[in-house]
């Protein structure tokens, strides 16, 4: 959904990323469709994925999870997987991505890695970058967590289906031991007594009618929203499309609407 794989190479082969606001809305809609009786597995990423930022509430939930599965993949397999993913993009694209390491590794070391890439020596560069990332991954994995929260599982294959099959049994046993209060409650739009909310547009010609609770609510206090609304902040709610109806205040029929886009999305 973020259209980025999370590393300096994560943008290769992906479409342009959504804005953080669009990602938040997309996540809210996906989240509202999940089953509240089942566990949700999320990749233990940082708060920022490329240029997009995760909603703080979701990131806090992720960091506070009662169970963290550490899939310990053999170093050689990880290097092979990375080469399969990013090798086809060529030396120049990889050199451009490695440029992002300059502030961390220094000029001389970054130049050496880029020269190796131009010589076609992709694997040594890949392995060195993985070693660099491992330090950050280990710190991120263990920061603020107890040892009993982390379940380490060895992985010896790149077959994703086989890995998922091997993870199911130990993960199920570990998650059953989690405290009930650690289970996230998911919103449901299927309530028989769902509340109906109505609001008019600025001129009063169009009525919006939304049924049930929103998938997400956000507050913005940027200068543009303050200027447009005349208020110190603007509260926005995201509803599933099928739960929203627009009516004309004149005859109750469907109004003629023109789409206005205020962002790249």
From TrEMBL:
Every CENP-V/GFA domain range: 197-265
GO molecular function: carbon-sulfur lyase activity; metal ion binding; tRNA 2-selenouridine synthase activity
Keyword 4Fe-4S listed: no
Protein's UniProt keywords contain Metal-binding: yes
Bilayer-spanning residue ranges: none
GO biological process per UniProt: tRNA wobble uridine modification
Pfam families: AAA_SelU, GFA
Keywords: Metal-binding, Zinc
Similarity annotation: Belongs to the Gfa family.
Protein name per the record: tRNA 2-selenouridine synthase
């Amino acid at each position: 959904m973020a259209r980025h794989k999370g590393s300096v190479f994560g943008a290769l082969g992906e479409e342009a990323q959504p804005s953080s606001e669009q990602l938040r809305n997309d996540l809210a809609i996906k989240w509202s469709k999940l089953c509240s009786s089942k566990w949700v597995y999320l990749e233990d990423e940082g708060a920022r994925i490329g240029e997009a930022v995760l909603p703080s509430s979701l990131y806090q939930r992720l960091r506070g999870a009662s169970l963290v599965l550490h899939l310990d993949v053999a170093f050689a397999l990880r290097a092979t997987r990375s080469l399969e993913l990013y090798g086809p993009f060529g030396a120049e694209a990889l050199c451009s991505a490695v440029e992002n390491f300059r502030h961390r590794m220094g000029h001389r070391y970054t130049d050496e890695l880029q020269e190796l890439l131009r010589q076609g020596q992709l694997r040594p560069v890949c392995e060195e970058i993985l070693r660099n990332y491992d330090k950050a991954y280990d710190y991120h994995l263990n920061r603020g967590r107890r040892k009993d929260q982390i379940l380490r599982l060895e992985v010896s294959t790149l077959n994703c289906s086989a890995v998922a099959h091997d993870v199911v049994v130990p993960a199920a046993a570990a998650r059953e031991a989690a405290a009930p209060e650690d289970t996230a409650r998911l919103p449901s739009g299927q309530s028989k007594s769902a509340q109906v909310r109505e609001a008019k547009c600025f001129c009063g010609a169009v009525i919006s009618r939304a049924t049930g609770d929103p998938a997400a609510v956000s507050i913005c206090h940027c200068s543009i929203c303050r200027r447009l609304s005349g208020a110190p902040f603007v509260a926005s709610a995201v509803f599933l499309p099928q739960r929203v109806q627009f009516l004309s205040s004149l005859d109750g029929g469907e109004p003629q609407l023109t789409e206005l886009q205020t962002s790249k999305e």
